[in-house]
Amino acid sequence: AQSVTQLGSHVSVSEGALVLLRCNYSSSVPPYLFWYVQYPNQGLQLLLKYTSAATLVKGINGFEAEFKKSETSFHLTKPSAHMSDAAEYFCAVSGFNAGNMLTFGGGTRLMVKP
Amino acid sequence: DAGVIQSPRHEVTEMGQEVTLRCKPISGHDYLFWYRQTMMRGLELLIYFNNNVPIDDSGMPEDRFSAKMPNASFSTLKIQPSEPRDSAVYFCATKESSNSPLHFGNGTRLTVT
Fold first, then answer.
1. How far apart are CA A113 and CA A92, in angstroms?
2. pLDDT computed for residue A30 by the predictor
């Protein structure tokens, strides 16, 4: 069984500030981990994924995430927030089940203040 | 690549009516998933298909919900009869293989009054 917990359903940062969105996972097998972003009235888009290669994963739009097995975490960061980063972000985990189904966290809404 | 195409984008119907949501997957994608998104429950997996065959429908909430994939280019999610608590955004998502990333459609916002 696998699960994902995203700490903080809402995060607010100022433009230019560091973005940190937290994700902790639980998995009985080595996981694949993903971050997706959802803009209003759209579907989810893949930001980045970890598949057991490098522990620091770089994604689109300047985002990156680091896999820390000891902490069972996969936090998403961006050094400098931009207004266009305002969206909802979902962490997801999949294991080696049939179809490698994703289990999503509850989402974190990022607000960027000017 | 047009992406995953869902129709309609919005659906408003009265309780008791039948609702059919449609999805056209990306060509060549062997897996198709139906998700439901609500504020209270977040993203829930309803059912998924592999090569047009339903593999896991354990997330389908009730017998009122049914999904079909008659061919590789088309899937439907049907609710009959619909109820107000079915109001949500329904997403179709597809992927090429089991290890590929998931591609989402823009969703169908269903409102049942």
1. 27
2. 74
